[in-house]
Amino acid sequence: MFKRISKLSLQNKMHALIYALVIVEAMLLLLMGIVYVRMLTSETYARNRVQLSALSTDLQNEFAEVDNLVTRFHEDAGAQVHLERAENDKLSAYQRELARLDLSKDIGSIAATSRVNSWTIMDDRGHRMVGGNGLDNYIKGYSTKDYLRTVGNDSKKAKWIFGPDNKAVYVHNLFDTHDLSMKHIGTVVFTIDLSFIQQFMSDSGLFSRQDFIVIKRDNQYYLTKPNLAHSVKSGLRYHGPNQQRLTSINGIGYYLFSKALNLDNTSFTVHYYIVNEQIIRKIVTASFILLLVILLILIISSNIANYLLRRLILPIDNLARNMQDFKTADDLPRLRERAEKANTFHRSDEIGTLYRCFQRLMSEIDRLVVKDYQSQLLTQEMENKYLMAQIDPHFLYNTLNSINWIALSHGDEEASEVVTSLALLLREKADAKTQSTTLEQELNIVKAYVKIQSVRFRDRLRFSLMIPETMATQNVIVPKLIIQPIVENAVKYGVETTDRPVVVRVCLRIENAHLIITVFNDGKGFNPAAFQSESTGVGLHNISSRLKLKFGSEAGLHVESAVDSTTSVKIWLPYAKKGEVSLG
């Protein structure tokens, strides 16, 4: 297969490559589409779970409000006293009736802001103390005794009984808590209208007409669609709380999500049935749109690829034929004319560059030999000039000594000192054999440089050198030329740019087995990030690199400066004495 591909022309190879890329693009887009649909599915279910969880919280709050009514009664010592007085046979009938009226007011105040429609309090013998008489058959098949029987006399748990037509009954025992005896003193029975659940469903905007809710507690079920009770009960037999799955009821697909509601005195499980077709419809719609987008991208990318391929390959084919037709220099005019007719010289891409280069190649090919000959002559001439420029350094030093002798003979000591300093400075910089020197010799180089600059700047340059009395500079070894370039930078950027006198100070000290060298000047300052000496060829960066190369992390250079401020360059390196290291 690879042999067959290798025999194809560039145009066919590029076509094959483009088609392969389109296929790969289609596969990647399809894969991305599948992943996107799965993510959309998960996100859709997750979004429904979040919204249903929020609705579950609302339901839990409503049921908890009813549950909290009993807690509020147990916290109301007055209501408990009124109930006990209403049951006390030792009191007169008038006193007991007053106690019932007070108890009725207490319960009415407690239940005023809840979903409770009516309330009845029974004493510990099952006799009605306060409240209505309509409990019998409020839920079909249940009498007042049936309600009381669900909790007994000792149970501290509440009981809910659900009935048709959004009816529910809440039963809970009452205990004497104000004296901590926890004696059973009666039972409260609340009737509640559960139609608010359907109102919650309508307000949420999440449910359709086919969706419904099931609330389950023990063997009690409440359905917003009571006609589906039989099918739902059988389907929920093995479905626990906080689960989700797809299910079917009477041939209709539902997304079932369950949520546990835990209250202080009881617990429920809420089951949400959402028609699965709505979710599937959203996913199918998104998948269809995604497929159209993928097809549109493939068609557009294929057409663009073919256009670009023609624009790329055709000029290259023409150029290849021109180059194949080139045999001798006589072919150059004809090929140049053919290339000009191709009208590709004005293109700004690589094709235009290739044609322009080919044109220049044809124009220059007949002169390559002459240019090569001229290049050889120029190289030979440069070599001769280089050899002539190799002046013996001793000749330069002897010349400086002669100038020094003339200056002394004329009594010009200042000129003699400048010449002597220049000779020392040139000799040390020209000596590339030694990489280290004594601190004394390094300071002599600095003094020689400062002497030369003092003649130029006079009082504008105020140089000082601070050396500890205990430091023997003749025995301290330092890398060569690490102080003079910094002093030169201080003069150049501190003294030259300022009309006032500038202090340049070199301070030496020993700290933690390290030699600390600080060069300070109070000139205009500079930006350390953009600074590097150009006059000496050895900038701060080069000095730092030399120190790092020789001593590693034991040495370094730090600059503190700012525009129109003082400048301080600090160098630290291991303190070494003569004899401990060589001067090589």
UniProtKB/TrEMBL annotation:
Keywords of the record: Membrane, Transmembrane, Transmembrane helix
Keyword Aminoacyl-tRNA synthetase listed: no
GO MF terms, alphabetically ordered: phosphorelay sensor kinase activity
Stretch forming the signal peptide: none
SUPFAM superfamilies, sorted: ATPase domain of HSP90 chaperone/DNA topoisomerase II/histidine kinase (SSF55874)
InterPro entries, per the entry: Bact_2-comp_sensor_kinase, HATPase_C_sf, HATPase_dom, Sig_transdc_His_kin_internal
The UniProt record lists the keyword Nuclease: no
Transmembrane segments: 16-37, 288-309
Protein name as annotated: Histidine kinase/HSP90-like ATPase domain-containing protein
